[in-house]
Design goal:
CATH class of the largest domain: Alpha Beta
Number of domains: 3
Number of helices: 13
Structural class: alpha+beta
Distance between the termini: 42 Å
Number of strands: 20
CATH superfamily of the largest domain: ATP-grasp fold, B domain
Length: about 400
């Protein structure tokens, strides 16, 4: 049966073998689509499900070549990979989705902001500086009072971001905890942060998911909670979806794009970042939507029609994050109690160790009404303790 399926479907290669890869393979396995992965961790989450696991670095072009040699279509689940090799492979005729040229933009926060500016995509005012001293100099030419300073490259999952104020930098630019090229963005007071997921297939057809509201943990700067549908006026939700579609069209590539936006206190929607891959902000689509983000990406990679982006029922998601208390083996302390709750779905990623602020899993809550979602979420929040063993 497996040999037949390999003739029906192309083999997909994923650069990276984390939880996104694992959840993608869980979906692709329903159709018996073979999936290979490249990840240096022999026990990464996706390793237990992959058709073939190349143990190697995602920043090593030779290892990416090995994955390409045994896969028909390549994609990725993390941005910090060797993009020049992907561009070379694409020029040689390998199918890579999304277009790896997009990664050249996404990997550099400065280039990403310039991309928004050049494509008339609304975003917060910013400037780019080569280092801390130039940031101080350029700051004097702005009216920024509070700002987010971001390292242009290497930041991930809340890292590489420093919130500060004008006087602090003017007095001592060395308070910025990283040097090198920086993107300095005016801090925009906002009501909430939202995300909109867009899929674009190879024919250029688009499908957009409803906007979701996000809450962030103030310490880790990671998403701690999200809910769909968002509690926002219809005209603003439609505007957010329009902006997300504009972003996908500007990229001009097939793929899955998670667009994160600020909703300012003046009801202005501003794009913060875009992830050209499955995203933490859309895990709830597995149980809450007719087509999950993983099935949607699978459809794009296999050149199939896009699936429905309609909500089945109101839903929410809580991230399970490693506690600050240390590293080590762990367990979800109230696993049994959580499993007594109707409409609550636990996803554990299978990471061997807990580390401070490490994503270890998530819980989706699906209920008939938004009010009921919030009610059950309150119960779930009391049962999400990760215990270090």
């Amino acid at each position: 049966m497996m040999e037949t399926s390999k003739k029906i479907f192309p083999t997909i290669g994923i650069i990276g073998g984390g939880q996104l890869g694992k959840m993608f393979i869980q979906k692709s396995s329903q159709w018996s689509v073979p999936v290979n992965i490249l990840d240096r961790d022999a026990s990464c989450p996706a390793s237990v499900l992959a058709n073939h696991h190349i143990v190697g670095s995602i920043t090593d072009g030779n290892e990416i070549q090995k994955l390409a040699d045994i896969s028909d279509v390549l994609t990725w689940e993390i941005e910090h990979i060797e993009v020049d090799k992907l561009i070379e492979l694409q020029q040689q005729g390998k199918t890579i989705i999304p277009n790896p040229e997009i990664l050249k933009i996404i990997q550099d926060k400065g280039k990403q902001k310039l991309f928004y500016q050049n494509n008339n995509i609304p975003t917060a005012p910013f400037f780019i500086a080569l280092n801390r001293e130039e940031a101080k100099e350029k700051l004097t030419q702005t009216t920024f009072q509070k700002m987010a300073v971001k390292t242009c490259t290497g930041g991930y999952d809340g890292k590489g971001v420093f919130i500060t104020d004008r006087n602090s930098i003017l007095e001592n630019p060395k308070i910025i905890p990283f040097d090198g090229e920086l993107m300095v963005e005016e801090f925009v007071p906002c009501k909430t942060e939202i995300a909109v997921l867009v899929a674009r297939n190879r024919k250029g057809e688009l499908a957009v998911y409803p906007a979701i509201e996000m809450e962030f943990d103030p310490q880790s700067n990671l998403v701690s909670f999200l809910i769909s549908p968002a509690n926002m006026p219809l005209h603003l939700e439609q505007r957010a979806e329009q902006i997300a579609l504009q972003c996908a069209e500007a990229f001009g590539s097939a793929g899955l794009f998670a667009v994160e936006l600020f909703l300012s206190e003046n009801d202005e929607l501003l794009v913060n970042e875009i992830a050209p891959r499955p995203h933490n902000s859309a895990h709830h689509t597995i149980e809450g939507f007719y087509t999950s983000q993983y099935e949607q990406l699978l459809r794009v990679l296999l050149d199939l029609p896009l699936g429905s982006t309609h909500l089945k029922m109101p839903c929410a998601m809580i991230n399970l994050i490693g506690p600050e208390t240390g590293n080590g083996k762990y367990r979800l302390k109230y696993f049994n109690e959580l499993n007594t709750l109707s409409g609550v779905y636990i996803h554990l990623y299978g990471k061997e160790e807990s580390k401070p602020n490490r994503k270890l899993g998530h819980i989706t809550i699906v209920q008939p009404s938004r009010e009921k979602v919030l009610e059950i979420t309150q119960k779930v929040r009391t049962l999400t303790e990760i215990e270090i063993l």
